[in-house]
Sequence to fold (325 residues):
Amino acid sequence: MAELIGAKSTILIADDEEANRDLLLGILAGAGYEVICASDGDAALRAIEKGSVDLAVMDVLMPGRTGFSACLTLKSQPETRLLPVVLVTGLSSADDRIQGIMCGADDFLCKPIRKHELLARVSSLLRLKQFTDELENAETVLCTLALSIEAKDRYTEGHCERISKYSVAMAKGMGLSEELRVALRRGGILHDIGKIAVPERVLQKPGPLTDEEWKIMKQHPVIGERICAPLKSFRLVLPIIRHHHEKLDGSGYPDRLEGDQIPLTARILQTVDIYDALTTDRPYRNALRPEQAIDKMREEVKRGWWDAALVDQLEALVAEVSNAV
Fold:
């Protein structure tokens, strides 16, 4: 069974009763899986923290930390939130199942355990995890590519990380959902990935660009969107990548959107992007001080380019960070 989903997977069994652990161990090891055993919820969490676990099968009722509690802990941490968790229970009430769902459990098994049902559910969840891992690997490759583009220009070192961090902080302060904050985190890293198609002579030109060079540069949001489009999990990231160079008065690119036609997430990242560019040394000018950069952005707000409310949000965030140092 294990070979159906590729490389041998490691499964954690957590149960305070040795007979139950032995039963599950026999079934899963017999099917070709690597198996780790734990006698309670705390031991299960320690084992997962130390090793490479692909799926956890946990009894609900254990002394100390219960299966419910251990599952909730795993699903609340970014490092383990995608780890499949199967809760094993002798409880049959709807309230218990609802509690398990609220804790983030991916599946349930009722005692007594049926061998073929256990193997089928484990195989199904591991196959889904494999797909998730492939998506994460693709995201890692894209982020590495984006950072490699940034590394070619010493003037933009750390730019993507700063954009990502400040955009997420602004979104959090505005009460935006976790889903949109994740999109902004990704967008901060990937917003300029389309510059891979822009020649270095254009990217690093110390003086003004010619009309022909601007035509090339203005294609990078479209190319970036195209690069990231195959990842369905990036559906909220694509508008950020494509529209972070639009202006409220419709004079931006690539689509000349106006006002609220520009997605809020793109406007947030755009605001941070402009501020970071102004406060960073460039070949053609020295970095502005934070207050100078905000003043310049307010001048451009009056020209109809940027969102005044977002500039206010950014100014407050910059002041908060400065006071915390």
Strands lie at 10-14, 34-38, 55-59, 85-89, 107-110.
